[in-house]
Amino acid sequence: MAEAGVPITNTLFPPPPGYYKAFTPAALERLAELEGGKVADNGDAAPGDDVEISESAAAPAEPGELEALETSLKPPRADWVLEDGRWMLFGQMYTAKPHIATAREIGLPALVSDPVSTGGDAERAALPALLQSFLHTLVALLDVLTGTARIPGELELTGRASEGDQYIQHLSNLAATMMVSANQLRGVQAEATLVMLMEKQLAERRDQTTKLRAKCREVAATIERLKKEAAGLTGADEADPVEVEVAVETEAEPAEEAEDADDLIEVDA
User: Fold this and answer.
1) Do 49 and 84 reside in the same domain of the chain?
2) Are residues 96 and 85 in contact, defined by beta-carbon separation less than 8 angstroms?
3) Number of folded domains in the chain?
4) What is the reported pTM?
5) 78-94 burial, b for 16+ CB within 10 Å, e for fewer?
6) From the CB of residue 209, how many other CB atoms can be counted at a distance below 10 Å?
7) Is residue 196 a part of any domain in this protein?
8) pLDDT in tens, 23-61
9) 215 located within any domain
10) How is residue 39 annotated by DSSP?
């Protein structure tokens, strides 16, 4: 419940329930006293520190005081919840096993055979028929509303305020039955949603795997091309020194011929 004087519309988040106000140091100490426990005088002491224990006797309990403190301060018994099948929390009733009410349980007429089935087959078959009946009733209601007016007092004799009351009531029953049948399909919807998500994730992983393999092939081709280019450059570097040596030998031969010619000239002289 909201705190008094604090409108919910003026807050970013709704105020918390007032149950937390029951967990006061005095209430917790009183509960421990009534249960026969020993309460520390210094509640702010760190764990492991030596704390003085109050040896004073607890005050006598008033009628129903212990039960009230246990109800408001202690957590619910899990075994009792499972045994009873329901439990209260913050003023609301909850069940240990969630149950979706059927159309008959909420007082609706039996417009469909059985709204509870395995796999939702009956619900899926009932929804189109309910929709068709809803549209047919709506057309009948429009036909009545646009028809000739009745004689004053004629409808009052039949116990109806207007001629379209029966159609409006039938539309309400059809809409409620459709909602109940749709609620019965929650389990089927959750299963189908899970299957769809798993298929989507599988398709995304396959797409990522295909892209990764294509990228790997591209990288492998690039590495192979770089290896070939490196091998070609290495072969060219090894061939260049041979050509230089041949060129040096070719250039040295005219010099030797010139020296021989000079020697011949000196001999003739």
Assistant:
1) yes
2) yes
3) 2
4) 0.42
5) eeeeeeeeebeeeeeee
6) 10
7) no
8) 889 888 888 888 874 444 444 444 444 444 444 455 777
9) no
10) -
Inside any domain, residue 220: no
- Name which residue leads in pLDDT, 115 or 25: 25
| Phi, psi torsion values for 134, nearest 5 degrees | -65, -45
- 179 falls within a domain: yes
Number of other residues whose CB lies within 10 A of the CB of residue 131: 12
* 74 and 38 in a common domain: yes
Tokens at residue 14, please? 């709704």
Cβ–Cβ < 8 Å for 135, 98 = no
> Domain residues for 150?
118-184
**Is residue 211 packed enough to be buried (19+ CB in 10 Å), middle (13-18) or exposed (0-12)?**
exposed
Is residue 254 helix, strand or coil?
A: helix
Taking 90 as the threshold, does the pLDDT of residue 208 lie above it? yes
pLDDT at 48: 46
pLDDT, position 138: 92
Q: Tokens 């000196």 identify what position?
A: 266
Q: Is pLDDT larger for residue 255 or for residue 161?
A: 161
Nearest Cα to 72, choosing from 57, 88, 59, 84?
A: 88
Q: Which residue's entry shows tokens 């619900």?
A: 123
Phi, psi of 104 (to 5 degrees): -70, -35
